[in-house]
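Two quick folds needed for the group meeting slides. Do the first one here.
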Amino acid sequence: MHCDCGTNAAGADAAARLAPRAAAQLRAHRLRIHCHAPRRARRRRSKGVVVMVELVVLAVLAFCAFVVFGTLVASASIVGWILVLPFRLLGWLFGGLGLLVGGPILFAGLLVGGIVLGVCALVALAPLVPILLLALVVAWFVRHATRRPAGV
């Protein structure tokens, strides 16, 4: 027997003994592919193929989820940037006003600090002045104290 219908290949005479309606149902049943197809033609998919297809479908769904999530994050970033833009512009405006008002004060402070630093450096180098004067006197003597030939 090939299926649960109870028919087999030798059941051709069984259809002749049945009523016409039952014979029609039996013929329709025999025409179905699962009833009289050889066992080799009814291939079952192996479990590995099913698992592989499931993994491919899962990978495609994961990729789609990443694309959707990335798009949502990018759009949220753009919306956030647009919402924060007026505050950034106000920050730049106040920073420019602060530089405009504080710039001359900053420049004056730097000038005074440079002058004070220069005076402090001269005061710190004051003990070296006698040593420098002594070196200059020695250099002057060496330069002007040249030997002259005698009796020429």
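Then this one, please, same format:
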Amino acid sequence: MSSVRAGKADPSNALSPPTVVTFQSNAFNSTVVRPYFLNPLCFGDDLAQHLVCELEKKRYSTDTPAQEDFGWYFKFSVSGKAHLFLVGRRPVEQDWLGSIERVPFLLFRRGVDPEAVEAIDSVLANTALFENVKWHNAEEFDAAEKLRSNP
């Protein structure tokens, strides 16, 4: 089940803020495999860089995007709290999947600050680049994905 309000994240709509986002965009590379990709489906380098640039324009602190086997990620901070945004292409669904996590402290996992969701959502609100932006509760999204893959 999604937590969506007119295409925007609504952190107050759930006990924990929605931290998974799906969206569509044809503005970023999803077909040309770059020589530096860890695997052939590691799209999202230009998307992650765009998100970082837009967050910096909004005065958020960010780090340079880095690659992982699923796609790309970068660190950003809101109100002094470090978060990670992970993004990758879902080829079957023909969309992008993003997820926000709070950077752990020692071994302790901490909740995502609703302002982090709002920061990412403010960039995805650009309708010239992003369509069908839908925010999801992570647990509900994972459960729904598990059901879809195990009919």
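Slide caption for protein two: The chain is about 25% helix and 30% strand.
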